[in-house]
Amino acid sequence: MSLIELRNLHKEYTMGTVSVHALRGIDLTIEEGEYIAIMGPSGSGKSTLLNLLGCLDRPTTGNYILGGEDVSMLDDDQLSAIRSRRLGFIFQSYNLIAQLSVLENIEIPLFYQGQTEKASRRRAQELAGMVGLGGRVAHRPSELSGGEQQRVAIARALANDPLTILADEPTGNLDSITGEEILQLLDELHLAGKTMITVTHDETVAARAGRTIRLRDGRIESDKMN
């Protein structure tokens, strides 16, 4: 059984009196353990597709089957539960909470799962060490470099042990050397069995994936193995 199946997926936004068709009939199947890169020009529908795959939004029409369950029309609470159990997110801007330490940022998904403080702390410590930040767990985001902040974001994405990790321009704010370190970390996660879906404008980032999907005007223009 496929991990993800999209069937004739459409997404339409209404802005005042204008309707914007962000996605126009997307059919897509993703197997468990794949590494997917999504590319396309500005306005092609990349971010909309990632938001739908991440259960951050619902399609206007069509079906999204995730792990055998149709999640297309679930309500907000149901989608939140899906996200907390199955999905991990990495954003270009890190999306860390400035007032919290490294450890506390990593613990956030565990808090929403209702885990005990002791179990959450132990898991967060383990993840901080895994991403090379074991000695910086008491620091706040403002005290970290961009690469270190992204490592915190990756650790947080792994906190609920998701099957699928969705990354939106994960190296977009990083210099080339730091970006390469982050990409190597993502490669390691894929080799460990995670399904990776990355939106990127960078051909060198996309080349690391096993498959590249290119969008244009809300449709899949090409879908090729790398």
Characterise the protein shown here:
- This protein has 226 residues and is α/β, with parallel strands linked by helices.
- The chain has one domain: P-loop containing nucleotide triphosphate hydrolases (Rossmann fold, 3-Layer(aba) Sandwich), CATH 3.40.50.
- It contains 7 helices and 10 strands.
- The protein has a 6-stranded mixed beta sheet with strand order 6-7-8-3-9-10, with helices on both faces.
- A hairpin with a 2-residue loop joins β1 (4-15) and β2.
- α3 packs parallel to α5 and α5 (146-158) packs parallel to α6 (176-191).
- The two termini are 23 Å apart.
The structural domain count equals 1
Question: Which architecture name does CATH use?
Answer: 3-Layer(aba) Sandwich
Number of strands: 10
Helix content: 25-40%
Please indicate the percent range of residues in DSSP E strands (runs of 2 or more): 25-35%
End-to-end CA span: 23 Å
The average pLDDT is 94
CATH superfamily annotation: P-loop containing nucleotide triphosphate hydrolases
SSE order: EEEHEEHEHHHEHEHEE
Shape: globular
User: What strand order characterises the main sheet?
Assistant: 6-7-8-3-9-10
Specify the number of helices: 7
CATH class: Alpha Beta
Structural class: alpha/beta
Instruction: List unreliable stretches of 5+ residues.
Output: none
Write down the Rg: 18 Å
Major sheet attributes: 6 strands, mixed
- CATH fold-level assignment: Rossmann fold
